[in-house]
Amino acid sequence: MKDPRIQKLAANLVGYSVDVQPGENVLVEMIGSERDLINAIIEEVGKKGGNVFVQLTDRTVQRVMLQNATEEMMKTWAEIDLNRMKQMDCYIGIRAGENVNDLSDVPEEKMKLYNSLYSHPVHSEQRVKHTKWVVLRYPNASMAQLANTSTEAFEDFYFDVCNLDYAKMDKAQDSLASLMKRTDKVRITGPGTDLSFSIKDIGAEKCSGQKNIPDGEVYSAPVRNSVNGTISYNTPTLYNGITFENIKFTFKDGKIVEASSNDTKRLNEILDSDEGARHIGEFAIGFNPHILHPMKDILFDEKIAGSLHFTPGQAYEETDNGNRSSIHWDLVLIQRPDYGGGEIYFDDVLIRKDGIFVIPELECLNPDQLK
């Protein structure tokens, strides 16, 4: 018997997130072994008159491919998949691997080749900029372990989050997006954090289920050379299968001049991938009312209620500060009292304290209003 929550999610992805139109080509990529959601998506695309194409990816196989890949192979792989992506109008990416650390022992130089020669042209440049796309996870035992819950409890949480009324959230985000577009100076304070930068004339974009599921953020980017001060992130993060904790950056005129973590050497190797990796490409404020604690999955963690993320690497085209990089690493700071608290100021006015918006025009984004 089909789980009606899966069919509802598939309908939302196809009809709302990427808004499939008759005759459009839709690439559905599944990383993992689950099939119920992908089959439901195929049915929903068919109802809309779209043409569906499927890519099934196994991380354990991909790991061996990357370990043995040459630069020539990477370029050919990218050329093949880039040609396919150019023929797509929509992309739905589902990540459901059993082990989030499957790529942890792929040599760093191989991952750099993959990120620069494959992922950057195929996804950052083509898919992100030229298709209607949405990416999401799929609940399984591995994700439940990361969230420290039973599998059944995690599934309930997952569908509560993913089947939220995102159209309602979209309207509530208008006030924050408008305020960010009018803002020049931003200051972020908290334990180990005192950071200032400008977002003047960069713009702001709402995220309410069209690109990510789950969703719940408004993003901008700092003026590239305006960032000064220190930020101490309090959320563990996975990058290329490696867990980083207690990341701390110090900035001078937009550049990360000091970086430390539980693995400072590897952290700095990532930041040295290219010139843009030591500059910031995104600043975003998260407020999904159902997501409260990190689970080392950025699609969930960057939407945590009372959080923000400040992202080294590539800027998005919609809020472009000119930064270019093969890296885009969303790092999260939670400012609720149970994580140490903190403040956000726009043009010297306190707009959020300890994770709660404190000016009337933004109160609609507080958890009690969005649930």
TrEMBL record:
- Could you tell me which Gene3D superfamilies the record lists for this protein? Thermophilic metalloprotease (M29) (3.40.1830.10)
Top-level taxon of origin: Bacteria
Q: Please give the Gene Ontology molecular function terms for this protein.
A: aminopeptidase activity; metal ion binding; metallopeptidase activity
- Which keywords accompany this UniProt record? Aminopeptidase, Hydrolase, Metal-binding, Metalloprotease, Protease
The record, for Pfam families, names: Peptidase_M29
Give the SUPFAM superfamilies listed for this entry: Thermophilic metalloprotease-like (SSF144052)
Which InterPro entries does the annotation name?
M29_Exopeptidase, M29_N-terminal, Peptidase_M29
What is the required cofactor set for this protein? Answer: Mg(2+); Zn(2+); Co(2+)
Q: Which GO terms describe its biological process?
A: proteolysis
Q: Which PANTHER family match?
A: AMINOPEPTIDASE, BLL6088 PROTEIN
Can you tell me which family this protein belongs to? Answer: Belongs to the peptidase M29 family.
Q: What is this protein's record name?
A: Aminopeptidase
